[in-house]
Amino acid sequence: MAARLKVTQIKSKVSEKQNQRDTLRSLGLKRIGHSVEREDTLQNRGYVRAVAHLVKVEEID
């Protein structure tokens, strides 16, 4: 089974640049405390790296 990532938004996107807001939206995050599960791919890792200061990431089996 492929590894998965649980991504949770922990900070507000209000004062962030537009590209970071768009990245959060691409991940499916809408508000603080919202979590999504994503496949562990290079593309998703790149998204997470771009907004690492706004999210918390956990690896799920």
Sequence of strands across the biggest β-sheet: 2-1-3
The amount of beta strand, in percent, is: 25-35%
Tally the beta strands.
3
- CA(first)-CA(last) distance: 8 Å
> How does the major sheet shape up?
3 strands, antiparallel
Unreliable parts: none
Overall pLDDT score:
95
Summed up, what is this model?
The protein has 61 residues and is an alpha+beta fold.
SSE blueprint and pairings:
Blueprint: E1 4-9, H1 18-27, E2 35-39, H2 42-50, E3 55-60
Antiparallel strand pairs: 1-2, 1-3
Helix pairs in contact: 1-2
Tell me about this structure.
With about 60 residues, the chain is of the alpha+beta class. Helix content is about 30%, strand content about 30%. It contains two helices and three strands, in the order βαβαβ. The chain has helices at about 20-25, 40-50, and strands at about 5-10, 35-40, 55-60. Helix 1 (about 20-25) packs across helix 2.
From the structure above, extract its key features.
single chain; 61 residues; alpha+beta; 3-stranded antiparallel beta sheet; 31% helix; 28% strand
